[in-house]
Amino acid sequence: MNKSLSKQQQLDQIMSNIIKDNICPELAASATQLVFGDGDPDAELVFVGEAPGKNEDEQGLPFVGAAGKFLNELLASIGLKRANVYITNIVKYRPPANRDPFPDEKDAFLPYLKTQLAVIQPKLVVTLGRHSLNCFLPELQISQVHGQPKRYQNQVYLPLFHPAAALYNAAMKQTIIDDFAKIPAILKLI
């Protein structure tokens, strides 16, 4: 990456490279647009979800549907707004019918996500859901490690259940709220 470019310019370059490199052309063909990321390129906190859904695909922004609304509430609960953090997904195009991304699709996008994180240099990467967790820490199970920070290769990760899980399971909602409440203390420790 060219260090003379601002972080935002570097992120824009990564986004252009995804299109130029024709990553997952079959996903791109079925999606409305690329959903790259949203927020502060200097954020200490980056949230990584799995893939855009219908609302995200339409608006070109990550986490704008029901799960995104809950994520906004969670951020407010720790005194943050979307503008204070950076939000992205592993896969940058909506999979057809909101199916889970295939392993080869996640693999194709992973180098771009890693470059995105290298540009932002967050203190903490919050993985939302098992797909996101398993991209970075494949040997861990979300049910066993949610809410527990993990350091790997000089990056601290905090695995959380996906906010969408709370929409289908009321018991999960409190778990997610409790795990989320740990973020300020974890940031202080890093």
- What level of helicity do the residues show? 40-55%
Count of helix runs: 10
Based on secondary structure, the structural category is: alpha/beta
Sketch the major β-sheet: 6 strands, mixed
* SSE order: HHEEHHEHEHHEEHHH
CATH architecture: 3-Layer(aba) Sandwich
Kindly describe this structure.
- The protein is α/β, with parallel strands linked by helices.
- It has a single domain (7-189), classed as Uracil-DNA Glycosylase, subunit E.
- It is built from ten helices and six strands; from the N terminus they run H-H-E-E-H-H-E-H-E-H-H-E-E-H-H-H.
- The protein has a six-stranded mixed beta sheet with strand order 1-3-2-4-6-5, sandwiched between helices.
- A hairpin with a 2-residue loop joins strand 5 and strand 6 (155-160).
Summarize the structure.
The protein has 190 residues and is α/β, with parallel strands linked by helices. The chain has helices spanning 7-20, 25-30, 54-59, 66-77, 103-120, 130-136, 142-145, 163-168, 170-180, 183-189, and strands spanning 37-39, 45-49, 86-89, 124-128, 150-152, 155-160. It has one domain (7-189): Uracil-DNA glycosylase-like domain (Uracil-DNA Glycosylase, subunit E), CATH 3.40.470.10.
Please describe the structure with a list of short key phrases separated by commas or semicolons.
190 residues; alpha/beta; Uracil-DNA Glycosylase, subunit E; six-stranded mixed sheet
Secondary structure blueprint with pairings:
Layout lengths: L6 H14 L4 H6 L6 E3 L5 E5 L4 H6 L6 H12 L8 E4 L13 H18 L3 E5 L1 H7 L5 H4 L4 E3 L2 E6 L2 H6 L1 H11 L2 H7 L1
Parallel strand pairs: 2-3, 2-4, 4-6
Antiparallel strand pairs: 1-3, 5-6
